[in-house]
Amino acid sequence: MGIRVAVAGASGYAGGELLRLLAGHPEFDLVAATAHSQAGTHVTAVHPQLAGLDLTLGVTDAAGLSDADLVFLALPHGQSAAVAAQLPPEVKIVDLGADFRLKDGALWGKYYGGEHAGTWTYGLPELPGQRELIKGSTRVANTGCYAATITLALAPLIASGLADPADVVVVASSGTSGAGRSAKVNLLASEVMGDLSPYKVGAHQHVPEIKQATGATALSMTPVLAPMPRGILATVTARFAGDGDPRQVLLDAYAEEPFLHVLPAGQWPHTAATSGSNSCHLQATVDVDSGRIIVVSALDNLGKGASGQAVQCANLMFGLPETMGLSVFGVAP
Amino acid sequence: MGIRVAVAGASGYAGGELLRLLAGHPEFDLVAATAHSQAGTHVTAVHPQLAGLDLTLGVTDAAGLSDADLVFLALPHGQSAAVAAQLPPEVKIVDLGADFRLKDGALWGKYYGGEHAGTWTYGLPELPGQRELIKGSTRVANTGCYAATITLALAPLIASGLADPADVVVVASSGTSGAGRSAKVNLLASEVMGDLSPYKVGAHQHVPEIKQATGATALSMTPVLAPMPRGILATVTARFAGDGDPRQVLLDAYAEEPFLHVLPAGQWPHTAATSGSNSCHLQATVDVDSGRIIVVSALDNLGKGASGQAVQCANLMFGLPETMGLSVFGVAP
Amino acid sequence: MGIRVAVAGASGYAGGELLRLLAGHPEFDLVAATAHSQAGTHVTAVHPQLAGLDLTLGVTDAAGLSDADLVFLALPHGQSAAVAAQLPPEVKIVDLGADFRLKDGALWGKYYGGEHAGTWTYGLPELPGQRELIKGSTRVANTGCYAATITLALAPLIASGLADPADVVVVASSGTSGAGRSAKVNLLASEVMGDLSPYKVGAHQHVPEIKQATGATALSMTPVLAPMPRGILATVTARFAGDGDPRQVLLDAYAEEPFLHVLPAGQWPHTAATSGSNSCHLQATVDVDSGRIIVVSALDNLGKGASGQAVQCANLMFGLPETMGLSVFGVAP
Amino acid sequence: MGIRVAVAGASGYAGGELLRLLAGHPEFDLVAATAHSQAGTHVTAVHPQLAGLDLTLGVTDAAGLSDADLVFLALPHGQSAAVAAQLPPEVKIVDLGADFRLKDGALWGKYYGGEHAGTWTYGLPELPGQRELIKGSTRVANTGCYAATITLALAPLIASGLADPADVVVVASSGTSGAGRSAKVNLLASEVMGDLSPYKVGAHQHVPEIKQATGATALSMTPVLAPMPRGILATVTARFAGDGDPRQVLLDAYAEEPFLHVLPAGQWPHTAATSGSNSCHLQATVDVDSGRIIVVSALDNLGKGASGQAVQCANLMFGLPETMGLSVFGVAP
Q1: Which residues pair with B220 in a beta bridge?
Q2: CATH number of the domain enclosing D252
Q3: Which of A229, B41, C144, D109 is packed most tightly, with the most Cβ within 10 A?
Q4: Does the distance separating the beta carbons of A201 and D289 come in below 8 Å?
Q5: For residue A44, which residues of chain B lie inside 8 Å, CB to CB?
Q6: CATH code assigned at D309
Q7: pLDDT in tens, D3-22
Q8: Cα separations (Å) of A118 from A104, A134, A141, A213, A317?
Q9: What are the residue boundaries of the Semialdehyde dehydrogenase NAD-binding domain, all occurrences included (chains A, B, C, D) (predicted)?
């Protein structure tokens, strides 16, 4: 008998990816999946890619979730705290929402609105010391998808002194699943295919999360919606403030990491290579002409950017091998 | 120590998918991967999605392959026979090419040109009796991607007498990876995105393979190249010649099949739900107005249409659980 | 001073394409564009591709439209009759909806529901005799997008006796703009990209329209949603019932048509080549093996399939050159 | 009898777009189109979107081009000089290649290799004073596609003192037609769909052209290949060095420009809205948190980024209305 697992908010894209990963996980037994408006529906009507999985979506409440040893919350931002409050303290929780990521309540209010619910252990195992914190936690706040992509690129370079934390410019493009499964005209295939569109320019809610995780003090971020279902490509540039090779810094920082791949010199990350995996691909160089470091990172926003990362954290929380049930390799082309 | 496996023709799309599946297979140990022009190259330079796999591509010859217990041939049509001839009889082989699929040498000559190399056990386990044949074979000819999609939809309906084998019309659309990894102008992204283009109208080389596998005697097939990297959607219609429910026929035929999913009534297959998996989704109805059965099947041309199917056959050939190392669930969205 | 033109239902995709065409038309002066929920909005907030056009959307009522010499109705099915009834008889109308296409009220009820509003002149100038009827009409019912694509492929072949009207099988794939600009989950980019999905299998509402226009008596149609914003590709097969060359029949039928292009033998139509144009590309062959004619036609569902066709009809209704304001050439790649 | 026009290099994407624009131009008569390997081919075999245009591609030499009053050169970089040298001085030439754009021959050598051919009038009419220079020129060097997109965003802000010319960071994504019609594996649809991939990071050949045109002194540029056939989206950030509203600066600079649209505040450019047009959409803001101006510009790389721009220049060179034969409006969705 394995570890009993439930997913709240299973009808969205992150929820569906969680179900896929959990259905193939050797130790986690999926015992419940809940959804708001889709409660009572068979999971394959909502996620046809899971044909063969016999499961009916339940209601998101304490009764439906408390029977689990581990609960993943894949709810809209602002809804996790109420559900978490109903669960017994011994039930371990990974929250894929933003509710418990920020330490600064004022920043929460500014970017998300409403009252700050609190701060949980930040679920990015590859940050220094963070893996041990996650292992000892019963409550983990999973990273934002952009935040994971950018933090993995930036944190070691600021820590090493090579990148000026006060001069960081990011342009990051995301596939559409990052915008969620909500029926909005601007997310229609007709609008998105053949199109690149920036949004929340200079005002994205992941900026304070990235600053908190990397130590950056001034960071300009332009998010762009790209015509592909999955993937984030972040181009992170910072003033070259030190002396050294940024690629070597990444290599040293991530030498032992199973999911982080600093590519051979000259080979740049691209999103399709990470699709369906829990990997993040990285490359860095110094643009001598402009005096800036350029780092590019790519990952699957539903993998290492959300659900894969959440399973990785859960593996740590239960003392399982960190890579269990996750794929290092992308599904391409 | 597991079963030693080699892949010949590892630089193409089917080859890359084989490597991905084998790298995650519990019993198959990937010991060699060969390629023609890319020999000497690290596999991740050719398949960046496999970052983390330490393997250098070798030369496709007997020396590079004979050390294996199992060899997958993912070579251009017409090249398998020469390589197979160099391998000892105790090395088991699954050929993903067309060389050994047809029983009729004249049809081979008509559709592929050149001399017919012979006929191996046809690698579609879900055909009646075929699973046992594959288990007892050391040489298996994997299905064509269109052939698998269409045969799975059509064979039980002809066998049941519901579909008239002399009146079959198929329109099937494929993602671009089905056309291989060759640098041709008509396969450029600029040409394909936003476009649907028919090709080999009434003249596709899978037609004789489908007839052989299903018993169809007259079959019109129009293949269409679709703007997506993976997936085949086949719309198969046949004159309704009998009495009964075609969906029930499919349900009965495939009740025990782990990878074949006849969807709930009213829900139609779509390709994205099968992406990255070894599943095939099916649905059927009778179009009363026109007196025709309409069956739609969807699968991943690199999964159940090629590399996944090949691993499924290999599992059978080695007495392993048929689903080992394969996913029932698609990666979507 | 040109002809005064208004567009009702200007916020949808067909409406936007009408505005684009009318803004460049030498004789039609766009005086009003109306929309339901978007009334009061500047047109460029709804259609950013029209930046440079200074126009505010008005309310769809008699006051807003009666001042025009010509009104295009691009409303949801079932809403045209009420608006048309409020317009003076001397105002010419082209209805892009389905309301007035069918002669048989019972079929209307079966496929669309509700009461049949009546029958107007069918707006497909390339049908024999139809051009003259359109010239003399003040009320024209524009074709459905699938109907136009399939009818242009099929009508001459049935008329010539080459195609058996009782044995027609069609599989037709459409870009997403054909499904309209409504915020539905199944039309989200995340769901559509990388996907082909059939819908309304054997039950599409354009079937009676095609039968009426072509004389087909039994026709199986499977529509498929394709991952591209524009374009329809129809594969039309029919039992080869006569003696002759179907390509030559099309060539003879359309020799003088400016927008219909029967391609050189061996070259098949593809959708991207018609994008943004009012052209339809055609090719035909006999599949000897199956005894069927295969005709493929491609057009832009918003061009010759909707708005371009409507402008073509309007040109005829006002005695203008039929090609005025329309492009024969596609925007590709 | 109009102005006689020839296109050299008509088989590529920019060449095809030139033919489309010229076929609809009221004053330019297309008398010849040449191509290297495709000479002798009917144009519709190479550009199916031009079905209806009766033209056979000729050989690119003086004999084939000298008969024209105006020649567009759409040749690979480095090949224009040899062809131009063969044309009489009274034949006006617009070169879409890079050969004559740079003033500094050393920079030409560094970025393109080979000998510098010279410097022609730079074909960006919206730069201060440039329109008059183009009117008086017989030789014009059309802009690079990235260069046009970025220069239009950046030049007025540097000129106004708001943007620090020594601190510019650009990330710009292009559709695949920008990479040309060459059969390369990395441009295959299978590789590109669902993918974003950076290339020539910090080393793109348009950087010196942008610096020359804008006065920027240090500029970091990361180009990204995006999964769409057309369009460039440039995110241009620069240290906010002055006092004022960057959007107002753009509004003032481009108030009279027919093809440049500074969008309403809060509305950001996206590429699809410019597809098929000669327009460029712009928006700007100050990211207070990071102290940087963010400007986003979007255009069609084959329109305002190449062929449309070339026709605009040619209109000026012949004293025609600048917008003749060009569309302000995009084809969307």
Answers
A1: B169
A2: 3.30.360.10
A3: A229
A4: no
A5: 263-264
A6: 3.40.50.720
A7: 999 999 999 999 999 999 99
A8: 9, 17, 10, 16, 20
A9: 4-135
